[in-house]
Every structure is written in structure tokens, then in C-alpha cells.
Design a protein that fits this description.
Keywords: ATP-binding, Helicase, Hydrolase, Nucleotide-binding. By secondary structure, the chain is α+β, with helices and mostly antiparallel strands. The protein is elongated and about 120 Å long. The two termini are about 25 Å apart.
Length: about 900
Amino acid sequence: MSTEENPAAAPRSLAEALRGRDDVSLAALLRSRPDLITPVPTDLTQLATRAGTRASVIRALERLDRFTLQTAQALAIAPDPATYAELLGLMAGDDGDPAVSAALPHALGTLRAQALVWGGDDRLRLVRTARELLAPSPQHPSPTGLGPTVREAGAGISPGRVQEILATAGLPSTHDSVSALNALAGLFDDPEQMSALLDQAPSESVEVLERLVWGPPYGQVTADPAPRLRWLLDRGLLLPTAPGTVVLPREVALRLRAGRAHRTTEPVPPPVEAAAAHRPQLVDATAAGQAYTALATVEELLKDWHEGGPAVLRAGGLSVRDLKRTAVALDVPEPVAAFWVELAYAAGLLASDGEADERYAATPAYDEWREGPAGERWARLATAWLAATRTPGLVGERDAKDRTLSALGPGLDRSAAPEVRHRVLALLAGLPEGAAPDAGSLLARLSWERPPRADRTGGGAPSPYARRTPAQPAEGTRGVAARAGGSGAPGYPADGAGGAGGEEDLRSRLARWTLAEAEMLGVTGRGALSSHGRALIGAPPAPRHADTRTEPAGPGDKLPVHHRQTPVPPALSPAEQATAAAAAGRLLDPLLPEPLDHVLLQADLTAVAPGPLERPLADMLGVLADVESKGGATVYRFTPASVRRALDAGQSAADLHAFLTAHSRTPVPQPLAYLIDDVARRHGHLRVGAASSYVRCDDDAVLNEILADKRAAGLGLRRLAPTVLAARTDPAALLEGLRAMGFAPAAESAEGDVLIARADAYRTPPRTPPEPVPDGPPVPDDTLLAAAIRAVRAGDLASTAPRRPVAGAADTAPGELPRTTAAETLAGLQAAVLTNDTLWIGYVNAEGGASQRVIAPIRVEGGFVTAYDHTADEVRTYPLHRITGVAELGE
């Protein structure tokens, strides 16, 4: 039995409670609250102090589920200390609730494990900082809707007025206000006396109480209250807290609520319901198709940016115009285009080049990624998506400074995103195989696991009593009006977005975005988690649904899923995630279509690819033709411009004929052959160089035609010779201008050779993927936890060991280093060597860090002491000049 459960060894402080824990319990605490060991505390007293700081308590409260949080809120309004029976009464009410009674021990155990509550069941104490955050106050009402106690609310009432309230309530007078308020509180706590008092109340007064009982408990009155209010004020059922303001005392509200601290308790998490059921094979096939589309979309995006993508905005990110252009190129809506751009960036396939004229382009890692197996490439995208803190759904919204958030720009990181994504997929993994979730029940479950800020600090769902009384008060008075509470307890930070909604809104939106993004990425199919998606998060195989239908259920056909669902898998470590991703890729590979080595050429200058093409064929066909439509089959169209593009890339007409003949299952149509020959015959007839630039042609009639064309006015052309024209524009602009006029010029070098514009891609220097923004300190691994616990216990041993000061040394306060002179230090160490005693020493290391140690000196020589260090559990040698002092340990 722990000291927290043994009344004979009841702890007097949180530090003593922590001191009574074993290493497993301490490890669980540090794992759930990693900020407590950043840095590692010197002893358990410092650990307890850090566990009670405002920032640490807020972080711990934010990670409680709704029922555990309700338990903490009940303790905040309970007596300090409280008994388990008192806490159970506040949670279950006078009538009791079996579900609450069954769930309360686990919730209380969670609060104890996280050092938010300490003490045995007979003396439960909420950490002082948590009580300050959760207890009700006029500025920040409690989520319970309760107000201050009679003693707190009546502290400012005059002694004479207190005695008048006692007399009106039928209680004997007392000698002072304190005893009078105690007597009034005792009246409200007594069920029989309280019932008798309320039986005498006018119905209008009871109606006022009913309007305030579930909160907010504050109301406003005029200087001359109506009779129904006067009746309540005279008996202390309403107490004034400020001029024109009254409050319903906590004891009165609890008695009217039948002892319940909360209007509704939620001891059991809401189940995730299945909205539809599909055949698992259909789910996997659909998800595999989406996965293939995801790979093709990322490749198409980066192929579009091969020669250097859009420019980087001065503030960072992609401009709205470039995002729209990218969306058109990918044939998707702009929010979807932002998702694909951010996904490629998170996977390290896309980055800025860092040049003076900074642009986005593919990274060298993209070339390596393209050559890998399809399943492995998908696993890299899915893993990057799971771990990314960047949130594409925020693109287009505004930040706290009213600046538009842009794709690839700053301000998109949300540290909660990875945790929400994993929780959504993990809850999907808890459903039967092939079951798609009901979004509403999924969001309700997530909200129970991490309640919104309003549920933690007040300002949640308004009470139906939080409104003015409908009846008009008597003339010259104003009825009780519920006063709106604050938006949250101080110190509870809102989300850093500053954009749409606070933290609770963001988490809900993150969940919705996760469902949509998982579908686009192929992690889910038809809303249900696929087999490779299940492997991606390390989830065990799902149970088959009892319903054996093979057809999907209708949207309104909800299949009940009870609490006996598959256990939700925990988050994976980086090594485990890599293993899971590899397994997911292996599961996906057989589901993806095999690439084809042929197309079907048609007489209308199109080619149909009936499936995915092998990479060399797809790359060459992408140069030779333009994509006209996508889908299960891709349609390519041959145009003069696309054929010229292939010729510019170094291909000849004979090469193109041979390529089409080798890869077409149908004969090459005559119109396509004529098109290639006609463009090849004209290709290179004009030559463009630098003069700034020039045009030369053996046929001066062609040059005359160019000079006479009005569209050439912007090129700044002038004749240098019968066969040469000079231009003010650069060669690239001149090439584009002439091509726009219908000519097919070719660029040439300074030596007069034709320049071949090969389709070599532009790449950025090597880049690393963006690092996720952590949500607080990382969870320590087992090795670090063991070392930290050992160090804390060692420091605690040194700081709490009983000791006797060396004669003549100054008294040392607890926690301070012993101080003795050099001679006294040397004499004490030498005496301990002779008597085999253990000493307490103060030691300052080379970096100036001070610590306390318990040692058993073995020998002292050469300015050093060799001793067995009990705090480190090993033999060490210490320079004498770094020892600040010694003291003998007590018995």
C-alpha cells in the first residue's frame, strides 16, 4: 500500500507524496508530463515545485479527458482537503449514479498519477494552482456553474446585516460574523432545514433560484429589489457581492441540484458509430486507386515545376496567383492544390532554391523518390503527412496580424495536427473492418478525449436559465439577470492561429481535414480505413462486422458499434513508424495497377493510355503530346506546339516515328505522321541568337514577312543584312514572340550551332524536410527516464539525509550546500576515512553547477578525495577545492 493510501503515513505535501512513489509511478508521471524533466530537477522537492507551476498545470489539465476534468473541477469546489465520499457525492449526486461510481476511481487515479491530486482517500488535495484555475470567481466562473461559498460571498457584508439574515432565516444570533456565516452555511447544508425553508418561498422566488441554479450564478438587481428578490436576500439565499450584483451561494445551488457539481457527467466515452459498411476488398481497392492518383498528382506537380517553379514571396510562400495556376495545372480546386503542394514540401520533395531570385523547385531527393517502388513512394508521402505540423487547410485564412496565410508560407504550423491525425486514424482502426465512421460521433469522441477550452474553464454551453426573467419586475426594480462569464481562465492560451476559431474549433477542423486528406492520400477508401492504412499506424487487424452485407449501407443506415471496439493503438516511436510504413507499402504494392508499355494512337491526333504508363514512355509522351483528359485512361493530344517541343528537346522526326511505332498497339495514323514531318521540315528554318538577340534566315522573304507583321512591333526588330534581323529583346523572349506569331524558330549558339533545349529538370541544392513544430517537450524514452529518476532520487537522498553540522560550521538551511573552511573540510574527510563514516558534502563542478552528495570517503591524498558516492552509486574522485563543505549524517 502506498503512503497516499495509508493514513498512518499520510503525506503532508506533494513532495512527500512523490517521495513515497516507486520508480514505475515516477516514470509514468514524467512520461505524461515531460516538461517536468526539462531540465532534470535536482530532487523531488524541486520536481513537486515544478509540477505546481501554472504553465505545467495548464498543460496537464489540457490533456485530461472530460470526466477526469470534471473530477478535478469538482475537487476545486469541494472542501480542502476532501474525502472520497464528498467527491463521489459531488459527481454522482444524492441519488447516486452507478456509471459515475464505477468510473471515478480511474479518473482519480489519473489525477494522482499526473500529480494534480495527492493525499489518501480521506484527505484528497487538488494542487493549489489547479484549484486557483478551476475554482469559481466573479471574473472566471467555473464550468460547474457554481458560485462562491456562503463564507466567501458574505465576507463583505456588515455584521448587523448578517445577524438580520440569521434572524429572518429562523436561526439564533451569534457573537460575530464568522460564526453567523457558519451557521447559515450549516442551514443550507442540512437537507431537512433547507427543504423547510424552500417550502415557505413564494413561487416567484423559487423561479429566480431555478434560473440561477445551473449558472451563471450572478445576477443584477436595482437598489430597490422586487419582493421576490427581497425574500431571497433577507434569508441569505442570494447574497450581495457588489453594488447591484448578487450571487447564489454554492451551498444553496448544490442543495437545489441534489448535490451534483455538474449538470451532466460523462463517465463513459461516447462510442464512434459506423455510418456505413463496405466490403474490405472494395475499401482496399478504392484506397489503392486514390494512392495511385496521389503519386501521379505529386509527380505531375513537380514535373510542372521542372524548370523552376513559382517565385517565393518576399514574406515567404506561394502567391495566390501561382496557387491558382497550380490548381488549374492539376485540375483540382485551390484548397486541394495547397494540400498537394504542402505534402510534397513535407516529404522533402519540394523546396526553395535559395538563389537571389528565389523560386520553388524539386529537390534532389525527388529523383531518388521517383525511382523507388510505388508502395515505398506512397509510404514516404503518408508518413510525412502523419508527422507534419503544417496545416494546408488554413491556407487563405488570416493570422493574428490580419495577414493572409499562403501555401508554403509561415504561420501554417499547428503542433496539435499530428496528434489529431493519429487519433482520428486510430479511432477508425477501432471500427470493424470496412466500416466508415459517422463524422458527428467521431468528433464527439475527440471532444470527450480533449474537451474544448470552454469546457475546461467555463463559458461552455449556456444554461437555459442564463437569461432575464420573462415577467416584468415591480416598478422601480430590475429582475435578476444572468451575467455572462469570461471566455476562459487566465493562462489558458488560445490557438496561435489568430485566424478562424480558437483551439477547440481548430481541433475539430483538424479532424475533418484529416478525414478528407486521408481519403485523397489513399489511407482510407470510401471513408473506411484500408488495410495498408491500418498497417501505417501499427493497428492490429480489425474484427469482421457482424453484418455480412456486401453492399454499402445507405448514408442514413447507421450500424451500431458498441463500447467493445478494438483497442485504440498508441502512437508509434520513429523506429516503429518506419517499420509500420514499410509494411504498409508492401501491402499496397499488389493493389496498384501494373504500368503499361503501350498506348493506342487514334486518327484524331490523340493517344489513349488505358492505364498507368512505364516511366520512360510517360516522360517521352509528356514531351511529345499534351494531356487532354485524365482518369482511368489518360488521353494525350498531339499538336504542332507539342511536336516542336519534342524537336526542341533533341529528337528528330525519325526518332519520333520510331518511338510511336514501337509503343503503339495501333498503326501510326497518317495525320500524325504528316504533322510530325511538317513541323520537322519547318523546325530550325529560323535561327535566334544574342545581339541582344538576332534572327537569321536564308529566305529574306520570311524576314520581310516578320518585319511587316504588327505583332512583331514589341520585339524591336531591325534589319542588319538581307538575311539577318537584330532585336532589343533577349533570345528567350524573341523565341516566344516568333512562336506566338506562328513561326518555328530554333535557338543557336555563338558558333552557329543549333541549341538543343533538353528536358533536363532544374533542382534545388540538397534540402531537408521541414521539422515539425513540437507540442511541448518530447516524450522521454525509457533510457532517459531511468537516468532522470536515478538523478532525482540521488539528489533527494542528498537533500533529505539527516545530518549533523561540523563543529564550528555555520548552520545550513535545508537545500543549501554545507559551508566549512578548507581545514575543516580536510579534517572531516580524513576522520571519515578512519571511522568509515558517511558524509554529506556540497560540490561545485567545472561548469559551476552546485549539487549535494552523500559519500563514504575511502582515501584523501594529493588534493583529491576518493569515495563511494551513494547518490551516483559508484566510486568517484573529487578535487578538494571544489567541495564547499562537509557535514556528518545523523543517525
